[in-house]
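Work Package 4 report. The design task specified in the project plan requires that, given a folded chain encoded as structure tokens, an amino acid be chosen for each position. We show below one input record used in the internal validation round.
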């Protein structure tokens, strides 16, 4: 008896998610159905693919060998389906998108309904990560990255730029006063990033005329966490316009030192692997995001 595509997809889902329950959620199946599919697959192959312990699942040596072939087969089927959709001029298939939480919340998520209306046959899978992810390891098709790119193995499509500003809430300024000079920031509570340290360089000059590097009293790896802290009046922050322009328009955050701000803009890129041909669904999503950002972008 030959293995089926459903059994291979169940196997891949378990490997990628790390558990039967997570795989079941991803494939919208029951845990028992996933378990039965794995059992049938191992019985047909006459080998054990996964070692099951109380804490986790581990690939056997045979499982490692089968994993590579199974990925290629499933990818080939997806490519064939997409090719047929392209013949109908309709991108189709699953598109896995990764972005930092702020960019996902403030830029990507508001575009999803419009994109789906235009390309209803594309199944979006959205993931948020604060750090740089391995696209192959996370099975990510396209990732949006803010800042200077360092990975030369990736194709990069420029999406735009976003200015950074120093901001504080009216409540914070009422309690602590508004600093009149960048040197006054030493007496204030500053909110900054835990990593990378380069994000704690603000678009101002210090007393020596160098770019101002601050020492945060409160650090976070997430720009969205820092935004929420600033909105609550916890301190002064420096964030990108793509996530704060509405806060400024509503008066929830106020820009400090606007006349002394350096024009620092963070580049935004969509990235994908160089050794794979870009698919219609990836291209359609990149083009749509670029189009929407170019249509009256407030930042």
């Amino acid at each position: 008896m030959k293995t089926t595509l459903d059994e291979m997809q169940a196997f891949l889902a378990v490997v990628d998610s790390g558990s039967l329950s997570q795989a079941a959620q991803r494939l919208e199946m029951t845990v028992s159905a996933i378990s039965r599919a794995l059992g049938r697959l191992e019985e047909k192959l006459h080998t054990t693919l996964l070692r099951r312990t109380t804490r986790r699942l581990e690939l056997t040596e045979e499982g490692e060998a089968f994993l590579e072939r199974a990925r290629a087969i499933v990818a080939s089927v997806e490519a064939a389906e997409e090719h047929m959709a392209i013949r109908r001029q309709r991108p189709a298939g699953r598109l896995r998108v990764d972005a930092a939480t702020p960019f996902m919340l403030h830029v990507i998520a508001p575009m999803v309904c419009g994109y789906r209306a235009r390309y209803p046959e594309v199944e979006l899978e959205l993931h948020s990560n604060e750090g740089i992810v391995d696209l192959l390891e996370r099975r990510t098709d396209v990732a949006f990255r803010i800042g200077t790119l360092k990975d030369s193995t990736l194709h990069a499509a420029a999406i735009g730029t976003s200015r950074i500003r120093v901001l504080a809430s009216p409540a914070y300024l009422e309690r602590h006063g508004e600093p009149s000079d960048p040197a006054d920031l030493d007496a204030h509570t500053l909110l900054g990033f835990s990593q990378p340290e380069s994000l704690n360089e603000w678009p101002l000059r210090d007393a020596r005329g160098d770019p101002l590097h601050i020492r945060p009293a409160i650090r976070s790896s997430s720009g969205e966490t820092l935004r929420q802290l600033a909105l609550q009046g916890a301190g002064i922050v420096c964030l990108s316009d793509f996530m704060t322009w509405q806060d400024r328009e509503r008066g929830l955050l106020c820009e400090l030192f606007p006349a002394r701000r350096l024009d620092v803009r963070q580049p935004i890129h969509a990235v994908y692997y160089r050794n794979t041909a870009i698919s219609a669904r990836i291209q359609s999503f990149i083009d749509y995001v670029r189009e929407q950002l170019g249509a009256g972008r407030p930042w």
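The chain has two domains: 5-86, 91-299. Validation will be extended to a larger panel in the next phase.
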